[in-house]
Amino acid sequence: MGSPYEKKYIELTDEDRAKVVETYHNWQQVGDENTYENIPEFCYSAGYDEVAEKGFTLVPSRYIAFVNRDENIDFDTKMKSLQSELQDLLVQEEKSKEELLGVFKELGYEIKL
Predict the structure, then answer these.
(1) List of E strands, the chain
(2) What is the pLDDT of residues 18-53, one digit of tens each?
(3) Is the distance from CB of 44 to CB of 63 less than 8 angstroms?
(4) How much is the pTM?
(5) How far apart are the first and last CA of the chain?
(6) How far is residue 25's CA from residue 19's CA, in Å, rounded to a whole number?
């Protein structure tokens, strides 16, 4: 949920805020089992006994299931993709370097490396 801004922040969109409000209101309704459902990484309805069992702490990570996205990454595939991207960048860098050195040489200011 949300739209990233700056490097490490996420801002909820109007649709995201509407989803949170709707979920909260559905959870408060009598007969909420028809309108509310627990959603991993979003919401969880804990009963009194469960909260008591956890020492009455309300830290979300004690109740909401979080998915470790790092475990779902195929390391070999990801590294091959990164390797290919880096190779392309290095080829482009070399080409740009040759062009730049050629321009300086044409201007009479050859750079020798």
Answers:
(1) 3-5, 9-11
(2) 999 998 888 888 777 777 888 888 888 888 999 999
(3) yes
(4) 0.49
(5) 50
(6) 10
Q: What ranges do the domains of the chain cover?
A: 3-67, 68-113
**C-alpha distances in Å from residue 89, one per residue of 17, 70, 107, 108:** 40, 25, 27, 29
> Residue holding tokens 């050859």?
110
The CA distance from 80 to 75, in Å, is 9
Kindly give the residue spans of alpha helices, DSSP state H, lying in 29-74. 48-53
SS3 of residue 61 by DSSP: helix
CA separation, residue 58 to residues 8, 44, 61, 64 (Å): 24, 11, 9, 11
Q: What angle do CA 67, 69, 75 make, to 5 degrees?
A: 150
Cα–Cα distance measured from residue 100 to residue 36, given in angstroms and rounded to the nearest whole number: 62
* Residue type present at position 60: P
**Is 29 in contact with 36 (CB distance < 8 Å)?**
yes
Q: How many CB atoms lie within 10 A of CB 48?
A: 8
As beta bridge partners, residue 5 has: 9
